[in-house]
Amino acid sequence: MECCRRATPGTPLLFLAFLLLSSRTTRSEEDRDSLWDAWGPWSECSRTCGGGASYSLRRCLSSKSCEGRNIRYRTCSNVDCPPEAGDFRAQQCSAHNDLKYHGQFYEWLPVSNDPDNPCSLKCQAKGTALVVELSPKVLDGTRCYTESLDMCISGLCQIVGCDHQLGSTVKEDNCGVCNGDGSTCRLVRGQYKSQLSATKRKTHREGQLLGLWACY
Q: Where does the signal sequence lie (predicted)?
């Protein structure tokens, strides 16, 4: 091992100290990882469409405790849901329609974009001002906000990029290209370009406040 070589004349002591520290760090990481069992298989996705979450578990083999996480997540089912599927948060609210609240039945509608706790299930009784937290956590895969890909997992809002990866900060450019540089379209004022699809127009509604984004 490098750290055990005898210092020869002219060998910098600082370099030897660095090798010794690196060796200890490597052994420490190996010891830490050896306390864990292998990661288990991925669970079934929490959703069949619209973007959900799947998890994998591992077991601590130590009699005391292990450093690190025993669960990891990834996104799944990243395909659009059919229009008739409806809103995922709304489905969770309507699931309480058959349950009495304070002795009365209500038709519950979703309350979205809560800035304080976007991952709680808050619903409003239709036709009333009554807003109730029907569950402290929405189901995994529920969008934190209606205009974002970020999703709730285990009650916490997790960042999701346009590449559908957890923790990713990659965003679409003005042309709707994930991690693009904006070179595939141009801004046109005062006219409509037919090659701009309905999907693109919806995606770029903010840009359309200033003009129309036309794809090349």
A: 1-28
- 74: tokens are 């990834």
Cα distances from 78 to residues 5, 53, 180, 203, in angstroms, run: 53, 10, 20, 17
Which of these, 38, 102, 100, lies nearest to 72 by C-alpha position?
38
Q: What is the pLDDT of residue 186?
A: 78
Confidence grade of residue 216 (pLDDT, cut at 50, 70, 90): low
Rounded CA-CA distance 151/165 in Å is: 11
- Return the closest-CA partner of residue 132 out of 144, 120, 146: 120
Encoded tokens for 42: 């991925």
Higher pLDDT, 52 or 24: 52
- Residue 41 in contact with residue 55, Cβ under 8 Å? no
Comparing CA positions, the residue from 164, 165, 167, 113 lying closest to residue 143 is 113
Residue 215 exposure: Cα atoms within 13 Å on the Cβ side: 14
Tell me what pLDDT residue 17 has: 54
Place of tokens 């509608």: 109
Which of these, 198, 169, 200, lies nearest to 184 by C-alpha position?
200
Task: Let me know: does 150 contact 166? Beta carbons within 8 Å.
Answer: no
* pTM metric for this prediction: 0.69
Residue among 77, 26, 31 nearest 52 (CA): 77
